[in-house]
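Worked example (supplementary).
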Amino acid sequence: MEKVLLKNLGKPGSHTLANYVASGGYKAFSTALKMKPDNIIQMVKDSGLRGRGGAGFSTGLKWSFIPKDPTLQKYLCCNADEGEPGTFKDRGIIDHDPHLLIEGMAISCYAIGASKSYIYIRGEFVFGAERLQEAIDEAYANGYLGKNIQGSGFDLDMYVHRGFGAYICGEETALLESIEGYRAQPRKKPPFPALAGLYGKPTVINNVETLSCIPAIVEKGPEWFSKMGPVKSPGPKIYCVSGHVKKPGLYELPMGTTARDIIYNHCGGMLRDGKPLKAFIPGGVSAPLLMPADLDTPLDFDSLAAKGTMLGSGAVIVMDTSTCMVKTAYIINRFFSHESCGKCTPCRDGTPWLTRILKRIEHGEGRPGDLELLDGVCDNIFGRTFCPLGDGAVMALRGALKNFREEFQYHIDHKRCMVS
Amino acid sequence: MVTVKINGKEITVEDNTLILDAARDAGYEIPTFCYQADLMGIGSCRMCLVEIEGQKKLQPSCVTPVLHGMSINTDSGTVQTARAGVLEFLLANHAMDCPVCDKGGECELQDMVHKHGPHKGRHAEPKFKFHDKDYVLSPVIIKNSNRCVQCMKCVRVCREVVGQNVLGALGRGDHQEPTSFFRAFMNCEMDGNCIEVCPVGCFMRLPYRYKSRPWDLKSSDTICPYCATGCRMVIEERAGTLMRAKAQLGVGLNSETLCARGRFGQDFVNNPERINQPLVRRYGKLEPVTWEEAISHIKENLTALDGDKIGGIASPRLTNEELYLFQKLMREVLGSPNIDSSSRFSPDAVEGFVAATGMGEGGVSVYDCMEADTVLIIGTHLSDENPVIDYIVRRISASRRMNVIIASPRAMKLDSSANIVLRHNVASENAVLTSLVIGLNEGKLADTLKGMHEAQLDANLKASGVSADLISTVVNRLAASSSIAIIAGTDFLRYPEGISGLGLLKDLLKSRGKKVTVMPVLDRANQRGAWEMGVHPGFGPGYSETRKGLGTEGMLDAAMKGELEALYVVGSDVASMYPGDDFARTALSKVGFLIVQDMFMTETARQAHVVLPGAAHAEKDGTYTNQEGRAQVIKKLLTAPGRAKQDINIIRAIGESFDRSFGPKHFALVLDEIRKEVPSYADVSLSFNNKRNTDNKLDNRGALVKAAAAPAVKVKSFNPASVETSGARFILTTGNHLFHSGRSSMKSETLLGLLKGAVVEISEEDAASLGLKSGEKVRVKGANFEAQMTLLTKKGTKSGVAFIAENFDDAPVNRYFRRGGGIPRVDIIKTI
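After joint prediction of all chains, the assembly is encoded as:
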């Protein structure tokens, strides 16, 4: 398959404007500037592009919610907070092909009528932030950003905003709070950001990967895009594979590639012979894990949802039989309780409780009834939290409990681990 | 309007009503922690989750508006499980030290767990602990974060209502703690609203710590006796000691908010220095006597005196009933027209102010003012003088589109909520208002304004020190507004020249077809009541015509000439409030027979021939009329110490000693007489106090007094205030400090703990140019007085303005002033 998102990865100097333009970059932007903004939104709608941040909402539809009033200030925020453990796809684009993102954002801003845009980048990505800033400076210097871009009368400013190191900053409304200078805690919805987002103005928030798809859609047309992968979630997808495989890394494949194809074909199979696959997480740690029996599931939004899990950010974490699922569940849960922002009660007080129980079980201090207690606490968290963080924590734990209950029970009964 | 079904009951409510409000209106209870009507909803505690038909997840009712046709269940099995689940989570890390917690017995968490379960906990893990020992945040606030339920009401009230932004949250997840950086606490206003909104024992009052259990307290619902905002509060006592004062959610115009004085300053009632027996001067010494002796002594000395040679001064902190009886005693029994209620403001200024603010036209609600397109606040440092009005302006102006314009020489907290701030010179309110009037006329002078020439604009701008640009911005806003509210403060009484400008602007705006509401803001609880009861030398009860008499100034003049044979002072400390160094003292010493009725041995009382022990607000029944004209009830909780008596009984006893038929026997009967004699009070009812308002509808309109029949008051013009011509750098202005109100708050142990020594406030720039820093000791040197005090600098105050509050005993600000002299100038010198 011809690569769309990672096409420049690995080429020397791929991050420079000169090389990006030489490989055909910013052509789509020039084309877009000659189009009517509404036509671009229609194109993106037609392409069937769905947000790559996790929720999989139609990008074109999201853009069309932005009020058309030209006197209103509108914003585009690029969510580059990439905090989901196991995910490192956006970083590839930011570090090696920043102009792809900038071009995608520029086209998107033109389409929705935003004259200011922010890239909210995870605070730990110091290199990425610097690289983005260099690229933005280059774009300004060459007339791809700034006032009256290419004589079209369209103005666009772009800012890099470094995050403050919290997972919750990746939640879109918490991200807005953070840009505004407040503590990153999610806002109540409605009003949705499309009507009242950053500084109370209409705002679109899209993931890096989503925005990076835009230039190709404009250049090659929505039909080309919609023919790639399954009908309902077409397009290219970057899978970040980590864990017990021979060749972990970024793989740009058509949406809907099966896990079997990714693990055994693209990644060269399991890491160690004699240690077959035990389970894999298809979309970052919030997604419930899948079993070897599910290897032939296409990794796209709808197929995974049908399996009770989700594509999320497309972070595939592969675990072989040497993995202790109790420890895995504990570590994942500890992450969520550490990252809970503290706003709502079930997540704030529920996830640490789960962590305490899991820690006990993991350390051989499990008590009879602990599994029922875990189930009960999960029930009290799920669906009652303010934002999906708490739900994510519960879904991940429930996945492990459902498939590996006897392993948890073994920990409690025998005060030691089943696998090691 | 939308129609929704709640628990099967169909109800119709306004669009965008929250499910929670709709359900509560319909009579269903939904428990909450983080919801508060006055604060922006955050939907975080998840106690209020309800089931909406057709929605998979439970929804937080406190942030979800109703939609037409919604079917809501507030009490289904799922909802009940969710509530119990949330409570279980809250208890997971909760300290569970109820037996030693001050909140025990009135804790919302306790109540909710009792009601909604779970009654058995499953959390058997080590709890997260913030700290081992409670920490003291300020002289009035102590905190235990281990009990926190993270509703963030403290942080939100501090930011959204008080506007001080002292509190914030640190940490994340279950380590999240509402607190502050300690340096920020130095800016705390000590109002304790964080304590009031705290549903659990996290923020607690330090003075009340370990003193009592809520079930041991007896309480009464009353009105704060400090400024004239008229905040409703509940005062509570145990074994005869007043323990605390607190506000109630959804009750009174203040709802759950109070200021530092109101919440912590009520303990002056317990002060051991209270006078507890009548005293009569014998052989130069004040000696205890019985009430009978005291009254007959008074009768002896007053009988056969010419009424014109008797004077009476009553405190504007007495109740309407007491004040009414007082003027009745003076006018009808003693035959004296010499009555006043203030030692600070001239009777003429009062009359002009009453007329210009239209007090005779009946009460004006602060909530009406806040519905205007533009609110102009002038002549008051609102944030310090009437903090709760400041809260209301901040809260409402943040939630709707309106202009807030503040004109004041001194910077204030509310400036941050204002669209335009006019920093004018001291005593130049008239110049500011006249500039606005000229600007609004745009050259087309109305009849009433003939003779006022546009060239005057320059003179007025120069006098006020405000730029023409700012004035024209304000003029444009005023011109574009269809309704305007003017909030006018006591500076108009200090510098009465501004009164004519106020009247002029009001009339002009009205003539332009705009709706104009004027609300006076005053600094003594029943100042308006005192005037409406006719405790004024120029008008009788209900602003009626009466024989003119002398005001405080005239009485002291007469005394100086030896022409005042008797003076009856109730609750007023003339000697320490009247401008000038020794004038009042000398004048009082020349009064033939001085009766002082007070709670404390004041400067004035020390000179008296008879001292009568009066009662505090907590010890009496009656009504107060606040600045808006809301007649509200105060209720007796305690008995006055020793042989002290309610002031109403003392006044009546004196009256009865002359005329057996004087005065009704009970305050309620006096109120009946007031209702008959003062038509504007005809509808005043004692039941207003017990009315609980529904959430966020705090405007108890029934309590507003009606218009007076024919107010005998006129807007007057006054000469411009002169400023002393000495070369000193600062112009001295005065008012009340945030922590104090008059002198009675100086008897509150808690408020003295917050601030005892005098403070002088100047602008940061002035301090820098003098090489002075905030917090340094300085000498403030005037023409006839100097004292040492602490310097406080404020950003944004007009250069050349020094402020010393009128409250301090160690630097009596009245001594800087000179009777009949201009506004004093002072120099500020570093103490070596």
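Two points are worth noting when inspecting this output. The CA atoms of residues 229 and 255 of chain A lie 5 Å apart. Chain A has a mean pLDDT of 94.
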